[in-house]
C-alpha cells in the first residue's frame, strides 16, 4: 500500500497541465471525498472533482504546482506550494469572463489533505486568490468600494 505522502504526490502529478488526468485524480478520493477551494467557498464532490481540475487547466493550460514542503503527519498531509501557469483561457467571474492576458501566475498556496485507508476524504486548498487575480490584472476595485461606502447616508447617521 502506498503511503499518504505518495498518494498526495500522485494527485499533484495527475493535476499537472501536461498530464491532466481528472479520472485518475478522482480515483484517489473516497466515494464521499471532497475537494474544497477554501478562498472561493467551493466544494467539489464525485464527478465534479475532475471538472474542477479541467476548469482550472482550461484557464491555465500549462498549470504546474511547485511543491515547496510536504509534511505527512499520520492521516494528514500538509503541503506548501506555488501554483504556476500562464493565463491562456477565459477566466469566469460572476459578471463575465476575463479574457486571456498571457500573464504568468505564481500563487502561494497551502493544502491540507485528509486521508483514511489510502483514500482522500477531504482536500482543502488554501490558495491566495487575491494574488492570482492581481497577477491576471483583476486587482480589487477599492475606489468603487470606497465611493459606495461614502455614498449618501440617511440624515442623522455618521461614520465611526
TrEMBL record:
What range(s) does the SnoaL-like domain occupy? Answer: 14-122
UniProt keyword list: Isomerase
The keyword Isomerase appears for this protein:
yes
Q: Which residues form a coiled coil?
A: none
InterPro entries documented for this protein = NTF2-like_dom_sf, SnoaL-like
**What superkingdom heads the lineage?**
Bacteria
Query: Among its keywords, does the record have Phosphoprotein?
Result: no
GO MF term set: isomerase activity
> Would you tell me the protein name for this molecule?
Ketosteroid isomerase
Organism, as annotated: Paractinoplanes deccanensis
Q: What is the lineage of its organism?
A: Bacteria, Bacillati, Actinomycetota, Actinomycetes, Micromonosporales
